[in-house]
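Hi R.,

Here's the input for the tetrahydrodeoxyuridine complex you asked about:
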Amino acid sequence: MDEQTLVNLAIEARKHAYSPYSKFPVGAALLARSGKVYTGVNVENAVNGLSICAERVALFKAVSEGERGFDKIAVVCDAGYCRPCGACRQVLYEHASDLEILMGNPDGQFKRTTIRDLLPEAFTL
Ligand code: THU
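And here is the predicted structure with tetrahydrodeoxyuridine in place:
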């Protein structure tokens, strides 16, 4: 799939973010090896610590539907080029150690990186 299309899907998904506490909506679009795209948004909660990031929502949706193996994820937020948090890096690595990451902004511009660059010397069992 075209990279710009994946970023655009993350921008669309971001509209559904549930972020009343941080007021910081994030959207993600994850391309599975099957060719299917799974979107995610951050879903926050009144209880601190129970919120979840957009990247993990997208990944967990996909894994829970039987997907294994992922090629690319686009992440969009309003903080320059959106960088996945450390927790998401670890979780993404577990399922896709060669994942490409498109760090996007709401205008549709993006930068490319990889999970290996973002999480060198990753922990695995
Ligand atoms: N957030 C994400 O969804 N993904 C990221 O990569 C960074 C942070 C969310 C978590 C929280 O709901 C809000 O952004 C502010 O931290």
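One thing worth noting: The pocket of tetrahydrodeoxyuridine is lined by residues 19, 22, 24, 26, 42, 44, 51, 53-55, 75, 84-85, 88 (CB under 6 Å).

Cheers,
M.
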